[in-house]
Structures are given as C-alpha cells and as structure tokens.
Amino acid sequence: GSYSFNPGTAFDRLAAGQTDTTKVSYTVSDGQGGTATSTLTVTVTGTNDAPVAQAGTATTEENSVLSGQVPAASDVDGTIASYALDTGVGQGNGSLSFNADGSYSFAPGTDFDALAAGESRDVTFSYTATDNDGGVSAPKTVTITVTGTNDAPVAQAGTATTEENSALTGQVPAASDVDGTIAGYDLATDIGTGNGSLTFNADGSYSFTPGTDFDSLAAGESRDVTFSYTATDNDGGVSEPKTVTITVTGTNDAPVAVADTQTTGENTALTGQVPAATDVDGTIASYALDTDVGQGNGSLAFNADGSYSFTPGTD
Asked: Which of 4, 10, 154, 172 has the CA that lies 20 to 30 A from 212?
C-alpha cells in the first residue's frame, strides 16, 4: 500500500501557499477474490520559485554612452518586482549606472581610447532579478562590446627665440596619439606678411628667416610672430591646430651714412654739413672723420655734429 509521488515541474505554476490536488484511484484485494476500490487525493502546496534571469549583450563605440535594458526575466509562479546589480564593470572599464527596472547606462569615458579603429574589448556586469515573493534569481551576465574609433592625435604648442638678423631652424613639439602613430605635420596658418618668411616641412621641422622685417627693433626689444600647425595620424585623424610662438629680439642696427659732393673755388673756404645719416632702430648720436683729405689737398676741420670746414689754401 506504499506509494511514491513526484510533483516534477507540473506544479511550478503554483504560487507560494497556493494548492492543487491530484486524485489516484486504487484497488485493494484480500487475496481471496475480494476487492475494493478507493481514491487517493494528494494535495500539492506551492512554494515560491525563483525567477529566471537571462544573459544579454550590447555594443557601443569607445566615445559613445550606451543606454540599455537587461533581458526580461521570467517567473513561473509570480511577477518580476525588480532587478539589482550583482557585480559592476570593474575599474578601468568605464562607468555603469544600474536601475531597479533593469535599465542601465554605460559610459566608456577615456578607458577605451587606446583601442585602434575597429579594435574591440568586452566588459561585463552581472545582475539578479527579484520576484514579488522575494525570490532572487541566479546572477546572469551582460557583455558589452566596446569598439574603437580613431582618436585624433594631440598636438602641442611651442615656443622659439631668435635675433632679428638670425635665421632659425626649429622643430614643432612631438604630437601624441593614444591609439596610433604620427604620420606627418601640416602648416595650418602662416606667420603673415611683414613677419619674415617661414618654410614648414612634413616632419614638423621648419625654417624661419626674419629678413629685414624686424630691423626697427631696438637692441633688447622683441616682437612675437606665430604660426599654427596640425598633426595627422596613421588613420588620417587630424589634431586641433596648435600655435608656435617665435620671439624675435632686436639687435642694434648700424646707422647708414650717405655720400655727398660739394664744390668751392680754389681760394674759397667751404663750410658744409654731411648728409643726415639714418638709423632704423635708433637715433644718430654723432659723426666722426674716417679718412682725411690727405696731404696737398687743403685742410679739413671735422666736427662731431657732422659739420666741417674745408680750406683749399694754396694747394
């Protein structure tokens, strides 16, 4: 008269405390031909079945924030009340915000900038679902595949100095590229008219010639000129323009004297003044005799203000 009853999964639909019955007819025999029939009634009481969560996947690019939703969990004997984060994405894998309705937001930040264009890296987090009776599912994993995009290189500002009459050979600061290499440099804006001349090369080297555009600078006085450049990486990404400032310092430019001619009669003294000299970056302080008229050519008296007196005498 013993029996065994296995509910299996047939009653998983029963909520906690809910019941269902199943009936089995059986016959009793006395071994002498006498029998009797009766019914066995088995009452099955439900317990809470934990909900079942699902694994999920999502994709985003390295600089794009992802808004997602975990797959809907199921519960055979109830409803899903909420979701909870089990394990986060971990350090160096962006940041994750997880909500009780199973929605989430994933921000890669700068943690994936090292990925080259088309390269990818997976990050994961796990979550659980809770049903209306407090049952908690086993954790399930969501895998986010982050795909790299080309990050533009980063150029640097630079400075250089030279004197007004000295050509300068320089090199822009080395640009950097978090996910590639620097392929070349290009001039973005030139130094402009009246600021000397610039030759710029694809390797970032340059040559600057002040010419005569800075001759008006007095000794120690300075003027800045600028040009900007960009860097290009191996995937064609172009940096923001950066400026190189060249400070040109003045040196003393020698004054410029002017030749002259004068006439006088052989017995007539001449009083004269040399032509006014010019100085592009200063003023004329004085004049001095360089070579005299020579013996047998009369006599000359020369003054610091440039005035002179010439006497032919009997020569």
From this structure: 172
